[in-house]
Amino acid sequence: MKRLGRVAALALIASLANAQSTDNAASTHKIKKATAHKKTTAHKPSATELQLETLRSQMKEQQAQIDALRTQLSARDQQVAAAQSTTATAQAQAADASAKVDAVQATVQQTTTQVDTLTTKVNDVQQNTTALQDTVIANQAQTQQQINSPTAIHYKGVTITPVAFFALEGVYRQRSVNSDINTPFNSIPFPSADEGHVSELNFSGRQSRLGGLFEGNAGKYKLSGYFETDFLGTGTSSNNNQSNSYVLRQRQIWGRAETTGGFAVTGGQMWSLVTEDGKYADPRTEKLPNTVDPQYMVGFSWTRQPGLRLSQRFGDAKTGAFTMAMSLEQAQITNFTSNGTNPAGYFFAGPGQNGGLYNAAAGAGAGNTASTAAITTYANNTAPDVVVKGAIDLPKAHFELGGIARFLRDFYNPVTYGGTAAAPTFTYDAAHQLSHTASAGGIFGSARVSASKFADIAVQAMAGQGVGRYGSSQLADATLRPDETLEPIRNYHGLFSLETHPAPKLDVYAYYGGEYAQRTVYATPVGNLIGYGPRNVSDAGCYNSPQVPGVGGTGGSISPAACGSPTRYVQEGMLGFTYRVVNSPKYGRLQYQFTYSYLQRNLWSGAVTGSLVPNAPTGPRALDNMIHAGMRYYIP
User: Fold this and answer.
1) Alpha-carbon span 393 to 391, nearest angstrom
2) pLDDT at 419
3) Which CB contacts under 8 angstroms, 24+ apart, belong to 70-73?
4) Distance between terminal CA atoms of the chain?
5) CB count in 10 Å sphere of residue 267
6) Which of 113, 233, 245, 372 has its CA 20 to 30 A from that of 613?
7) Is beta strand 385-394 parallel, antiparallel or unpaired with respect to 346-347?
């Protein structure tokens, strides 16, 4: 703006100078004319000339001033140009300085970012170092804990988990069955037996258990082995009829290989595939009744015996799984029973031989009519029991359905009947011995639902022919036909379970189970009746007064005379609770258990007279009340 002002002033001065120059020219012309006139005339300076001279002098001064102003303006223009050049230089320098400042600021910003990043990294390192220190300390503590209190033992690539509990248990029975804490349900005494009038109270620590689980991961295969023993066998009557009670009693001992695809092979002694499993069809997941009694519950389907099991799993229990399994298991014919007057030219089992490592204790001959004849004998099996089962696992439920095939074989001499129905006679063809195999088996299933975290409801059942061995009561598998071949007896058994968990340390439960053996009777060629539960068998003595004890006070009898009908139905109702005083993964579990059971054993109705058997239409009945109590300490 100052420069514009100076330019305007210069223009004004130039205009004035031009005007002055014009005036000067005019004045000069007039002066020249006057001078000429003066020359022609005698000139005498006039007032006008004096005034003009004054004006000329003033104009010279003004011109000098103008020239001075022009000089000043030129100097100022030079100064302005210099100032503009200086300003441009300064602006360039300022721009350069600004660029440098921006670069410095960018560098500072980058440096600040790097510093912040470095600070963050340092903080992260410090945090990681702290976390690592904490982890190291925790790992050291865990390592020390594992050294001092290991949850498992590691041998090479195998993890070994000990399994054990130590028990003090006892049982009170209103009517004695001369038994330890396990109950022979098919031997509840009648009033005519001495034991039907006396109670018993027994304590035992023999169910205390020792065992171990061995596991190894071999890449494609998960390998495992398990054994479990207790002290409930007896040396003089050890057998493999149901629980393989050899001393030290071998409960379970098996090996297993499982692929990542869910296929598994298990071999050894284990719970039968008939037994309800808790998950898939895997061993060690069996669902057993909550009872101290090692014979468990009436109606519970089970055996423990050697076998080979194959299984294939599809899916997972968390979302839903289906498992197919098959097993080949040790066969046995138990509690063969045939009432009446029978031929005796047959056999299907015999006592063990010490040299063969089977117990040599034997009762009567293999063809004897007593229901206990086969308890200490071993069947001459022709094939294993074949069991197949499918299992469905859902998040809160487990379902099973399966079947079993059995093969009951005997050898016999052909028989010819003679005499009368009251006194039959038998003639045997000793020159020929024949064999016969009777097919047996049935179906079984179970359903278990966790209605809530406070209750589980379950039911299981089994029906078929010749499957009495798979029930806890051990009802008869077979009886005798008139031609001396074996006839499987139709059996049914089932169990209902209600298990509640009202508190973390308390379980309260109720069970009801029953087992049934169907009447299976034949008439021989001479008219006498044989088989399981003929109606002409006398039951007149079931309610008689007990017999007089024998010498030394040991004449008691569970099976009194004149009470010959076999068992029709055995039932048991049980109530109980388990309270865990301590349940620690570090120190183990200490629990107390108490159960009460009501037992009833009904026979098939036979021939009676008068009112000696009050409930003759439905057969004689024996009752018993039983209490089990126990204290167990489980290792962690």
Assistant:
1) 7
2) 95
3) 70/10, 70/13, 73/6, 73/9, 73/10, 73/13
4) 100
5) 16
6) 372
7) unpaired
**What is the tens place of the pLDDT at every residue in 452-509?**
999 999 999 999 999 999 999 999 999 999 999 999 999 999 999 999 999 999 999 9
Are 633 and 164 within 8 A, CB to CB?
Answer: no
**Which residues fall within 8 angstroms of residue 548, CB to CB, at 6 or more apart?**
555
Task: Let me know the angle formed at the C-alpha of 97 by 91 and 98, rounded to the nearest 5 degrees.
Answer: 85
Name residue, tokens 């007039």: 30
Residue 334 confidence (pLDDT) = 84
Q: Is the separation of the CB atoms in 566 and 339 below 8 Å?
A: yes
| 392 DSSP β-pair partners | 322, 399
CA distance 259 to 280: 15
User: Which residue segments constitute the domains of the chain, with CATH numbers given?
Assistant: 2-139 (no CATH), 153-634 (2.40.160.10)
CA distance 356 to 481: 31
Q: Closest by alpha carbon to 415, among 407, 400, 425, 423?
A: 425
> Mean pLDDT over residues 122-146, rounded?
73
Contacts of 633 (CB under 8 A, 6+ apart): 165, 166, 167, 588, 589, 590
What letter would DSSP give residue 617? Answer: G
- φ and ψ of 534, to 5 deg: -60, 145
Of 73-87, 252-266, 622-636, the least confident:
73-87
Altogether, the residues listed in the chain come to a count of 636
> What does the CA dihedral 447, 453, 455, 459 come to, rounded to 10 degrees?
10
Residue closest to 197 by CA, chosen among 189, 205, 185: 189
Quick one: DSSP state of residue 181?
S
Cβ–Cβ < 8 Å for 491, 449: no
- DSSP bridge partners of 412: 346, 434
What confidence score (pLDDT) does residue 612 get? 60
pTM for this model (two decimals)? 0.76
Whether 180 and 295 have beta carbons less than 8 Å apart is answered as no
- Rounded Cα distance between 405 and 265, Å, is 20
Q: From CA 136, how far away is CA 134, in angstroms rounded?
A: 5
Beta carbons within 10 angstroms of residue 605's beta carbon: 20
- How far is the C-alpha of 266 from the C-alpha of 272, rounded, in Å? 12
Contact 308, 266 (CB under 8 A): yes
In single-letter form, the type of residue at position 52 comes to L
Write the pLDDT tens digit of every residue in 602-620: 999 888 755 566 555 678 8
**Bridge partners, residue 624, by sequence:** 599
Span 585-613, average pLDDT: 87
Single-letter amino acid, residue 234: T
By the 8 A CB rule, do 304 and 252 touch?
Answer: yes
- Output the CA angle 392-394-398, nearest 5 degrees: 55
**Cα 584 to chain centroid, rounded:** 19
Measured between alpha carbons, how far is 142 from 523 in angstroms, rounded to an integer?
76
